[in-house]
Amino acid sequence: MNDTIALLQNHRSIRKFKDTVIPEEQIKQIVLSGQAASTSSNIQAYSVVVVKDPVKKQKLSELSGNQQQIVESPVFLIWLADLNKIQTAIRLHEDVELKQNVETFLLGTIDATLAAQNAAIAAESLGYGIVYIGGIRNNPQQVTELLELPPLVYPVFGLSIGVPDQEPDLRPRQPLEAVYHEETYHNERVVSAIRDYDEVTRHYYATRKGGVGRGGEQETIWSREMLRRFNSDRQRGHLHGFLTDRGFELK
């Protein structure tokens, strides 16, 4: 263990923030830390829009499912997969279209994710709290218009940053056996680990601050949460049409 590992293993998502202003220099250092993340073949196929304007944050909150943490956080970062930069770079030399497939789409998405996680860790190291906002994909076309994004750019997720105004319990993660495999994948261990994790999450949801599981239930377990999540209409099926309209070729 060292200070970095301790910071990583004590991560909590923060959803209530104080109205403390984050200095501009710290915002830039957080983003610079994001830029230091690994990137496939140095393509750096991502960008970030920093939003501090209260009116714009309110609109983004509404588009993301009325998530108040967007409004409360002094800084909201929207991480973008950005193939427009690659297209622009190519056209400095030849007037040709960027050749695309699913791989190029993944490159931009993965690059944005790696950079964002670096930025999140940097923010936490400065004493700030963070929470990712996947709801930014609920209404991606309206977000695109609000941020004036060019073709070949899409919002992957948002990241709220601010001084925490809550101390949530540390949410237990799956046991190591559920994610760690030696040489080959061992599904029988996964089944056993999930059953063990269900018991851990049963206790967590019953005893955490508030004492109520998701959906108001007194008893909640992880596997049932997965059933609820992936056997519902919450899969954002509109994204394929949105992405192809934005110029991404998913083939």
Automatic annotation (TrEMBL):
Which GO molecular function, any one, fits this protein according to its record?
A: oxidoreductase activity
Q: Does the keyword NADP apply?
A: yes
At the top level, the lineage of the source is Bacteria
Q: Sorted alphabetically, which Pfam families does this protein's record hold?
A: Nitroreductase
Q: Which UniProt keywords apply?
A: Flavoprotein, FMN, NADP, Oxidoreductase
Which residues does the UniProt record annotate as the domain Nitroreductase? 9-162
Q: Which PANTHER family match?
A: OXYGEN-INSENSITIVE NADPH NITROREDUCTASE (PTHR43425)
Hey, which family's this protein in?
A: Belongs to the flavin oxidoreductase frp family.
- This protein is called FMN reductase (NADPH)
Organism from which the protein derives: Paenibacillus cellulosilyticus
